[in-house]
Every structure is written in C-alpha cells, then in structure tokens.
Write a structure and sequence with these properties.
Layout (H helix, E strand, L loop, with lengths): L1 E6 L5 E5 L4 H11 L6 E4 L5 H12 L3 E5 L2 E5 L7 E2 L1 H4 L9 H8 L1 E5 L12 H9 L3 E5 L2 E5 L7 E3 L5 H12 L4 E5 L5 H13 L2 E3 L5 E5 L8 E4 L4 H13 L3 E5 L8 H8 L3 E5 L2 E5 L9 E2 L11 H8 L5 E5 L8 H8 L3 E5 L2 E5 L8 E3 L3 H13 L3 E5 L2 H6 L3 H7 L3 E6 L2
Parallel strand pairs: 2-15, 3-14, 6-7, 10-11, 18-19, 22-23
Antiparallel strand pairs: 1-23, 1-24, 3-5, 4-5, 7-9, 8-9, 11-13, 12-13, 15-17, 16-17, 19-21, 20-21
Helix pairs in contact: 1-2, 1-7, 4-6, 5-6, 6-7, 8-10, 8-12, 10-12, 11-12
Bound molecules: uridine-diphosphate-2(N-acetylglucosaminyl) butyric acid.
Length: 419
C-alpha cells in the first residue's frame, strides 16, 4: 500500500488545473443508461470511483471506453438490472443506478449501500419518492428490489434536500408518465449539470438549481449526447485552502465563481484576496489567517466536503473558531489525527472548537475518508518536519493525482510504497 510523505514549510506557487467533478460525473454516467444513444462525456476525472461506476455499468452489459479525460458510453442494450454488493459496498454513489434502471427496464435490484466512515447515511428518501412515483419496493437480503411497469409522475416533497436522492428521482422521472415535481430539491451545481445532460438526451426538466424541479416525462430518450462535466468545486476549494495555509499565491485554471458558493466569502473573511478572470481564479493567502466560524449546509452554504480541510486551516489560524457540522453525524475523523500534529481541537457533539496554534509538527497519521485525507495533506504542507499519511487509497477515490499537482506547485510531497 502507498503512503504520502510531506516535508512541510515549502511555499506554493504557480497554476493548477482543476479536474472535472467526481460528484457530477457519477450521476451523469448513471443517467446514460436511461437512453440508448452513445454518450461522450468530456472532462471526466481519472479516479477510482469513476472506474467503479464503469464496472457496475459493465455488469448491466453497458460498455464504455475512456481516452484521456473523455469517456464514451454505449448503453444501447442492457442485459442485467442488478448492482451487486461487492461493487456497491465500495462506493455509496453506485446507488444512483436505481432510478435509471427502474425507469428504463421496469425493474432493478441494487444492493443497499450500508454505512460508511462518515455516518449511517440512510437512503429512505430515495425509496419513498420512487414509491410515490408508483414503484413497488421490497428490501430483502440486503438488496432493494424495485419494479414498475411505467412510473407515474407525482409531487414529491423531500424532508432534507438530499443530493443523490434528488438525482435518483430526477432521472427516474424523465421516463415517467406525466409530470413530476420535486419539492425541497437539492440545488447543488452537480444536480444542475445532471439536468443539463438529461436535457441533451431529450428530457424535459425545468427549475434545476432552485428548490423546485419539474420533470415532464417522455417515452424514451434516444439522442446521442456530448457533454463536458463541470469543474470539481471540492478539489478547487481544497487548492484554495492550500494557498491559504501555506500563505501562497496560486492560480486555479478551469473554474467559475459559481463553483464556490459561500466558500469564497469565508476565505475572504479569513484574509484571502481572490480574483476571477475568465475561467481562472487567483488567490493570495494572508500572512496570518483569521479564525472564522463555519456551519456546513446544503449549497450554496459551506459544503461538508470542505469541512475537514477548513479544520486544518483553522488549526493554524490566529484565534479560536468553531465548526458546526450539520450534514453528517461522524465527519470529524480528521480531528484526532490533526491533534497528533499539535492541533488544539475540542469536539462537542456537532461542534468542534479549534484554537489556532503557531505551528503544527509533522507526524505519522492515518487517513479515514476522502476529505479527511485532504485535510491531513494540507496540514502536512505547513507542519514542521515530516508527515507520513497512511491509508491514502481514500484519496484516489476523489482527488486526481493530488500529490503530482501539489509537487508541480513546489510542495515537497511524494507517494511512496509503504512496506
Ligand atoms: N439522508 C437521509 N435519507 C436519505 C438521504 C439522505 O436521511 O434518503 C441524509 C443523510 O444521511 C445526510 C443528509 O441527508 O445526513 C444529506 O445527505 P445527501 O443525501 O445529500 O448526501 P449524498 O447524496 O449521499 C452527496 C455527495 C457527498 C456529499 C453530500 C452532501 C455524491 C456522490 N456524494 O452525498 O460527497 O458530502 O452529497 O453534500 O454526490 C464526497 O464527495 O466526499 C462526498 C461524501
């Protein structure tokens, strides 16, 4: 297994290209099986999760090929409707195939994803909504079995604006009979990108990006599609925080201001100078980062996927700050590891209180999930001495060659074989 070794203290400088969004690509791949035309998807990041989704689709008889960052999917004929446990357990987002399989084939058997490192993460709202569209749902032997001759449009109100839930329902509704309205829908840019893709396939969707999405069902989606995935706003946010924590000047290539929601204003409050020019963003980190409180919330609020990285930043800020994590129950796994590096953090239920220290010190630490891994890398970039991060397979699920990108910016970082 590999580990990442960082010798902290090197300033960063230069331009980094932001990859396509993982969380936009995954539902778009799943959506391709709604139609029978070939789909050419550009700006697809080279990540383990993307490869996992391709393997799941292969089980349905859907072939895909990839050349650099372009993925071509051929969904003309589906030969199976089952997403098995051995694949779904490695990636929760596999559950996104439920809606499209059900809508296209009238049946689907998808393993329940189970819990994960950041909490139990139920999928009850996905199932309830599909039932409201007329699906018969049974949960048996760890699998969700869904069937419906043809789904029927309905008004579906979500208790929480679940991202993948909104996506699953929106995809299923594209082929339903009549109109579906999703109330309290997720407004994330990834949901909007999925709607754009579906509309290119021939779907009739409006309201995406607001909390009410309307879908007029059509009989079939036949058009071949070409689409470029939006930039990864979490990767972009991670590099912005890298500039802050190392007090550096960085330019991010391939981003748009809409990517950031409240992250931009929070960074500015913490002392960043940020400028946008076309699809570039330049950030200058301050000499001393100001302590700023954040509360995670759905888009456009502060994303839970940047909470761990923000904690690393606040660990070296000038003052005390509070983080309130409202999205997931168990998303402070990075805190104990940051504390091994000298961070002063107190956890109280949903909240973390972080007292900034003048410096962190390098240590051997363990990554627990994707975003926690990124937080440890950020801490390693400023820590005095050597930081070794183990269990970095989490990183490869969601950050495309992060160590190479950071190295090109001047970081002393390496991936080495861990014997
Ligand atoms: N929830 C329910 N019931 C449901 C669905 C969700 O109670 O049926 C709860 C969840 O337990 C959670 C909250 O609702 O407390 C919000 O979860 P949501 O469903 O929005 O999360 P998700 O769709 O499973 C996506 C991203 C996550 C990201 C969250 C929140 C993808 C593939 N995943 O997950 O990304 O943290 O939205 O923004 O889009 C990551 O990339 O590291 C990652 C975890």
């Amino acid at each position: 297994m590999d580990k990442i070794v960082i010798r902290g203290g090197a300033p960063l400088k230069g331009t980094v290209t932001i990859s396509g969004s993982k969380n936009a690509t995954l539902p778009i791949m799943a959506a391709s099986i709604l139609g029978n035309g070939s789909c050419t998807i550009h700006n697809v990041p080279d990540l383990v999760d993307i490869a996992t989704m391709a393997r799941i689709m292969e089980r349905f008889g859907v072939k895909s090929e990839r050349e650099n960052h372009t993925l071509t999917i051929h969904p003309a004929k589906l030969t199976s409707w089952e997403a098995p446990y051995d694949l779904v357990r490695t990636m929760r987002a596999s559950f996104l195939v439920l809606g499209p399989l059900l809508a296209r084939l009238g049946k689907a058997r998808v393993s329940l994803p189970g819990g994960c490192a950041i909490g139990p993460r139920p999928i009850d709202m996905h199932l309830k909504a599909l039932e409201e569209l007329g699906a018969r749902i049974r949960v048996e032997k760890g699998y969700v079995e869904a069937s419906a001759r043809r789904l029927k449009g309905a008004t579906v109100g979500l208790d929480i604006p679940t991202v993948t839930g909104t996506e699953n329902i929106m995809m299923a509704a594209c082929l339903a009979q009549g109109r579906t309205v999703i109330e309290n829908a997720a407004r994330e840019p990834e949901v909007v990108d999925l709607a754009e893709f579906l509309k290119k396939m021939g779907a009739r969707i409006s309201g995406e990006g607001s909390s009410v999405i309307t879908i007029e069902g059509v009989k079939s989606l036949k058009r071949p599609v070409e689409h470029a995935v939006i930039p990864d706003r979490v990767e972009a946010g991670t590099f912005l925080i890298a500039a802050m924590i190392t007090r550096s000047r960085l330019t991010l290539q391939g981003v748009s201001p809409e990517c950031f929601g409240t992250v931009e204003s929070k960074l500015k409050e913490a002392g960043a100078r940020i400028e946008f020019h076309n699809n570039q963003c330049t950030i200058q980190g301050p000499r001393l980062v100001r302590a700023e409180n954040i509360t995670t919330s759905p888009y456009p609020g502060f994303p839970t996927d940047l909470q761990a990285q923000w904690m690393a930043l606040m660990a070296v800020a000038g003052g005390t700050s509070t983080i309130t994590e409202t999205m997931f129950e168990n998303r402070y796994m990075q805190a104990a590891e940051l504390m091994r590096m000298g961070a002063q953090i107190k956890l109280r239920g949903q909240s973390a209180v972080i007292k900034g220290v003048p410096h962190l010190s390098g240590a051997k630490v363990m990554a627990s999930d994707l975003r926690a891994s990124a937080a440890l890398i950020l801490a390693g970039l400023v820590a005095r001495g050597k930081t070794e991060i183990r269990r970095i397979y989490h990183l490869d699920r969601g950050y495309e060659r992060i160590e190479e990108k950071l190295k090109a910016l001047g970081a002393r970082i390496e991936r080495v074989k861990d014997r």
